Amino acid sequence: MNQEYTLIKAPRLIDVQTSEVIKDAAVLFKETKIVSAGPAVSLNLPTEANIKTLEYPNKTIMPGLIDCHVHLISLGDGRAGDDLNLLPDEILTLQAAKNAKLHLQSGVTTVRDCGAKNQTTFMLRKSAEMGITDTPRLILTGRPIAIIGGHLSYFGSPATGETECRAAVRQLMKEGADFIKVTATGGSTKTSFRYHASFTKEELTAITDEVHKFDKHVVAHCASSEGIENALDAKVDTIVHCMHFERDGTFKYNKELTKRIVDQGVYVNPTLHAIRHQVWHLENLKETTGLSEQELLDYKRLKNDYETHAELVSRMKDEGVTLVAGSDSAWLNYKMGEFTHELEAMKSIGMSEIDVIRSATIQSAESCAVDDQTGSIEKNKSADIIIVDGNPAEDISSLWNIEEVFKNGEAVTKDK
Predict the structure, then answer these.
(1) Model confidence band, residue 3 (pLDDT cutoffs 50, 70, 90)
(2) Pairing between strand 4-15 and 20-30?
(3) Where are the extended beta strands (E) located within 245-312?
(4) Are 407 and 364 in contact (CB under 8 A)?
(5) Residue 367, exposed/middle/buried by CB under 10 A (0-12, 13-18, 19+)?
(6) What angle separates helix 293-318 from helix 272-288, to the nearest 10 degrees?
(7) What is the Cα–Cα distance from 144 to 154, expressed in whole angstroms?
(8) Is residue 167 pLDDT above 90, yes or no?
(9) What is the mean pLDDT of residues 24-47?
(10) Of 48 and 18, which is predicted with more confidence?
(11) So what's the pLDDT on residue 416?
């Protein structure tokens, strides 16, 4: 009996495991899984099989992108999370479906959602499983765990004390969480204290200990050095933002914290463009409608914050920290489908194109604990593949030009 295979061919294939670009390459997959990949002449094609061949002249084959930090329910219209939370769950679930499809069509085949209201993202996954909507591979936390009044507490599972922290983890695991997002410091939430640690070390340790019992991973939001230290003591797996601010909001680089991040093998998602897009938004307003006195102050502060954070991330890179790509869209004005902005920002702090690509594929897959399924083009992994017009290994901005997207071996239909 003939079996259906798909063979895709292009002048280039980016091997993120070896950091090499293979010339005159091909990938063979059957249904959802990759069978083989490499130079086209080296592939042993199955005999007496039905092979559909797709050729992409002057294009590049590479793994589908992995955005390890999104908020699918956000509108990207500038409203703060405190206000987003006031919308009905039904509206937020529909928005999540819209955002998921935008990201998928832009070449992002896997997303890790780092916090949503109630059951919204879990309902999105159920609708995707039923074939109602197209989404990337969804890695979900559901509700983030926060202290009462802390960052994202309006979405969250507020917890006080070690017992409540463990109970919150168990409840989310029961509901189907793939990992746990915890806010280890304050943030943009109006009732939080941005640069103060939130949970105690004992509470954070209870959370990570409980999560690791389920063989899941922990992602910690950290906007200050105090929060980073607590997260490292608690043995979290990924730190988001990773800003070296003191409690009073002054920047102070802590080399010892960076060394601990490297020694403990913790991934850092720096969310560079999450700050830069706010700067761009205010610059656009400045040129069009003008800025109010408060907006002008915000612009100066955010511009300085971005420059400080970019310098910090560059230093962490040089000192051996593994940076993984996550956009933090669609927070504030940062719309989904624009993940390449984050990759361009990572390139701007001194990363090579191939290192940026690795951060957005295999290393993000490792941070999301799905590197056994996706993140590279290898035998038996899911056929999550994108075709790029251009060569991202030489120009990361060519990732704006996605010719084709395959998720689990199926071509994604693009909206006209």
Answers:
(1) low
(2) antiparallel
(3) 267-269
(4) no
(5) buried
(6) 150
(7) 9
(8) yes
(9) 95
(10) 18
(11) 60
Structure tokens at 340: 């390449």
pLDDT value, residue 1: 42
Mean pLDDT across 267-285: 96
End-to-end CA distance of the chain: 37
HEC profile of 121-187: HHHHHHHHHCCCCCCCEEEECCCCEECCCCCCCCCCEECCHHHHHHHHHHHHHHHCCCEEEEECECC
Task: Read off the pLDDT of each residue in 24-28 and give the average, rounded to a whole number.
Answer: 98
Q: What is the DSSP letter of 45?
A: P
Cβ pair 231, 184 in contact under 8 A: yes
User: Tokens 């280890």 belong to which residue?
Assistant: 184
Residue 256 tokens, joined: 């010892």
The total number of residues shown for the chain amounts to 416
Task: Output b/e per residue, 119-134; b: 16+ Cβ within 10 A.
Answer: bbbbbbbebbeeeebe
Tell me the average pLDDT across 196-212: 98
